[in-house]
Amino acid sequence: MKRALNFNAGPAALPAEVLEKAQQEMMNYQDSGMGVMELSHRSKAYEEIHNKAESLLRSLLDIPDNYDVLFLQGGASLQFTMVPMNLLQEGSTAYYILTGSWSEKAYKEATKIGKASIASTGKDGSYKVIPDMTGVDLNDSAAYVHITTNNTIYGTQWQNIPYFKDIPLVADMSSDILSRKIDVSQYGLIYAGAQKNLGPSGVTVAVVRKDLLSRSQDNLPVMLNYRTHSDSRSLYNTPPTLAIYLLKLVLEWAESLGGLDEIERINLLKSNLIYDAIDSSGGFYKGHADPGSRSQMNVTFTLDNEELTANFLSQAKENGFIGLNGHRSVGGCRASIYNAVPLDHVEKLVDFMKVFQSQN
Ligand SMILES: *Cc1c(COP(=O)(O)O)cnc(C)c1O
Q1: Which CATH class is domain 17-256?
Q2: Which of 98, 102, 327 to mutate to test the pocket of ligand 1 (most atoms within 8 A of CB)?
Q3: Quick check: 321 and 353 in contact, CB under 8 A?
Q4: What are the residues facing 170 on neighbouring strands?
Q5: Ligand 1 pocket test: which of 80, 153, 174, 201 has the largest number of ligand atoms within 8 Å of its C-beta?
Q6: Which of 4, 31, 281, 328 is the most buried (most CB within 10 A)?
Q7: Catalytic-residue membership of 172
Q8: How far apart (Å, rounded) are the C-alpha atoms in residues 25 and 266?
C-alpha cells in the first residue's frame, strides 16, 4: 500500500510501523481475545500499557523523579485553562510571552481565571521572530511564565529556552515535544496534545514538577485539578485507553530509532532540506520565520503573489502532497514535518519545489 505524502499540521502522520502493529493487535491483544479498546481500564493488561507509556516517556525525555507524568483529556486547549486554575494563586501574576496564535489563546484563558500579563509579544512583527528574553527581569513573585516552544501556525521555535530564576516556566510543547532533546528541569510544567508528535488526538500529556501540585486548591472541579490525576496515576476515571496505547507504540518506535539524539538529527536534516530549497530559490520561495527563529517542525513560506501560491498548492495537491496549505489565519504554505514524516517524503517535496520553480 502506498502511504500518502502527509504534511498535515495535526492530526498528522503516524509512523507506518505503529499503525501496522496496532492493526495486528486490533482484534486480539496479546491472546486476550479482545482488542485494546475492549479491555477494562482496571485490567492488568491495560495497566501494563499505561505504565509502559509513562516509563518510556520518562526515559526518552529523561524526566527527573520529582516530576509527575499525567495523561489528560481536553487537548492542549484545556491546559490553557487548567494551568492558571491550578498554578495562578490570588495575589500573584502569570506572565505570558506571546509568539503566535496558541500563546494568545493561552493568555486569554488565563485572564479569565486570574491576573495575567504579557511579558513580551511578537505580534507587531507578524510573529516572525521569537523575542530575546535575556536580561528581562520579571517580578520574583510571579506565579509562572508561559511560553509556546514551537509555533505551529507561524513556523517559529524557541532556540534558547529562557530562564527566570525561581519563577516556574510553563511550556506548551504540543508541536515539538519529542522532536529534540530538552532539559525537563528547566520547566515547572510541560504540556502537549498528542496529535502532532506523540500519537493520535484524545490524550494530552502533562509533565509537572511535584512541588507545584500543592498550589491546586481543593475547591477546584475534581477533573480540572492536577492533584486528582497525580494521586490516581491518571486513572481517576476512564482514561483514553486507545490513545494511550497508540502513544505507547509511538514511544517504542521513537526508542527503536535511537531516542532523541537520533530523532533530532533526522529532524534537522529534514528541515534543512526545505529551508535550503527556500534560501537557494533566489526569492522565488520566501520563508515566513526569521532565520534565527525557524521551526524544525513547521516550515512556513509563501511565493511571490497569491496567484502563484495558489498554483503551487493546487499542483502540489495534484502530485499527491497533502496538507501544505498554511493555517487559515495566515495563508501561504506550510510543511509540517513532525517526527513521523519520513525523510524521503521531504526529499520528494523539495524535488517538487524545484521543478515547480523551474516551470514558473
Ligand atoms: C495544536 C496545538 C494546540 C491545540 O491543541 P488541541 O489539542 O487541539 O487543543 C495548542 N498549542 C499548540 C502549540 C498546538 O500546536
Answers
A1: alpha beta
A2: 102
A3: no
A4: 146, 189
A5: 174
A6: 281
A7: yes
A8: 29
